[in-house]
Amino acid sequence: MFYDVMWFVQNSMDSALLWLFVVLALMILFSGVKIVPQSHRVVVERLGKFHRILTPGINFIFPVLDKPKNIEWVFGRGFKRSSTMDMREQILDFPKQNIISRDNVVMEINAMLYFQISDPFKAIYEISNLPLALEKLTQTSLRSVMGEMELDEIFSKRTEINESLRTTLDEASDVWGVKVTRVEIQDVNPPASVQEAMQRQMEAERTRRAVVTEADGQRDAEINRAEGKKRAIELEAEGMANARIRLAQAESEAIAKIAEALSVHTDGRDPSSYLIALKYLESLKEMSSGDKSKTVYLPYEASSILSSVGVMKELFTK
């Protein structure tokens, strides 16, 4: 019976060892299967040396010999540790920093950096801490670019500053396998005294623009009124001239018809004496229609003109 017990124990130990071996084999086998998420990469080292980069999907590596590279990045006040590398566009929000402009104004600048990793090998092996390196590079570039500008230029040329920073950072970070897509300056905070001076300057500029606009409006109104008066005078003069021309034409036509009629009944004599006499009589009528106390003197030459009345008498007699 003792031997039976020993045999049972021995068989049990052999079975346990077998099962243990099977479990270890399965664990080692499954440790060689790596699933990489979409838009991520995994850097694999074999015996401490770079071997290959795993792409999204199911990948197989040699257990024990191959090992994913752990990425430890420190940026700002944060810490990130992972075996996968995110290939999507990422954002770095830097803390505020002091910048001195060309006109010696100290201000606080807050910037954001958008970047994307294009080469995982360079991002790991060409720089020890990529986010921290990008942060320090952005800060030094901000000081360099804005230090050559005055305060007014910094406020008015923010788009040009962003583009200049993007170009500079993209060229500098190309050796790290990084593509800088955008740089955005969020806040520019000068000292309180400078802000008050800028506020007063803006108010004075608004007042000046209002005065200039009002003066321009008054000037345009005066010009329009003068143009209107000028046009009215021109139209009135043109109307009077046309009226005189038409009156002269009417008188000419009337004289022509009268002359034609007189020439028929005066046996071809000149009818001008009749017309002169007619005008003279009208003038005498106007002279005598005024104050009755006035004495009207008839000039001597009137006798020659009044002789034309005989012509009129003969005319109407016929």
UniProtKB/TrEMBL annotation:
<comment type="similarity">
    <text>Belongs to the band 7/mec-2 family.</text>
</comment>
<dbReference type="GO" id="GO:0098552">
    <property type="term" value="C:side of membrane"/>
</dbReference>
<keyword id="KW-1133">Transmembrane helix</keyword>
<keyword id="KW-0472">Membrane</keyword>
<dbReference type="InterPro" id="IPR001107">
    <property type="entry name" value="Band_7"/>
</dbReference>
<protein>
    <submittedName>
        <fullName>SPFH domain, Band 7 family protein</fullName>
    </submittedName>
</protein>
<dbReference type="InterPro" id="IPR050710">
    <property type="entry name" value="Band7/mec-2_domain"/>
</dbReference>
<dbReference type="InterPro" id="IPR036013">
    <property type="entry name" value="Band_7/SPFH_dom_sf"/>
</dbReference>
<dbReference type="GO" id="GO:0005886">
    <property type="term" value="C:plasma membrane"/>
</dbReference>
<dbReference type="Pfam" id="PF01145">
    <property type="entry name" value="Band_7"/>
</dbReference>
<feature type="transmembrane region" description="Helical">
    <location>
        <begin position="16"/>
        <end position="36"/>
    </location>
</feature>
<keyword id="KW-0812">Transmembrane</keyword>
<feature type="domain" description="Band 7">
    <location>
        <begin position="31"/>
        <end position="202"/>
    </location>
</feature>
